[in-house]
Amino acid sequence: MTKMAPGSDTARIPLLSVEDMNDDQRSIYDDVVAGPRGRMIGPLRAAIHSPEMAALWSEFGAFLRYRTCLPHRLNELAIIVTGRRWRAAVEWWVHARVGVEAGLSPSAIEAIRDLRPPVFEDAAELEVYEFTRQLQQDGKPSEVVYRQIERRFGTRGVVELTAVIGYYTMVAQTLNAHEIPVPDAHMPLPDGDALAHLPAGRLAGA
User: Does this model's pTM top 0.85?
Assistant: First the structure.
């Protein structure tokens, strides 16, 4: 029986079944499924058409998702903000749920989804939100926000956070360009322009 993801016929690009993969593609697929991702549902479904690129993509993405020096919930927050900026449905579908599991406030995630000013209990969350929001919308974060991240996480932290945002921008663009479907054929984001304008966040009680 052909193993094809739900909604696969709606993409702009052929989404390969396991049986349709060549040896190089199957090796990448097996590595992804055996690793922390557990399944292949996102941009690697497009990247796998270029096996060498997909192998490098998978390795780099696994580092940025699971092994940066940032706390997991803050890493996920940066990904969520990036996914919302680009209105990348699969990126949002995956990481909004993981973000809640990692300790982010559901109300803050809901506010980001609805493009309302999110309210954070933790200053580090507000700093990561603002760094990501400003980098996405202004092309770079302000000096104040940049130094906040640098003081909190060091030079390595600010470099890795920037890389997370850049990588997940590539992910979002890949998902959007090829119209990779959400696994349950569900659109978890409101209708609107592809590039969303994210409002400034604030700290609870401020």
Answer: yes
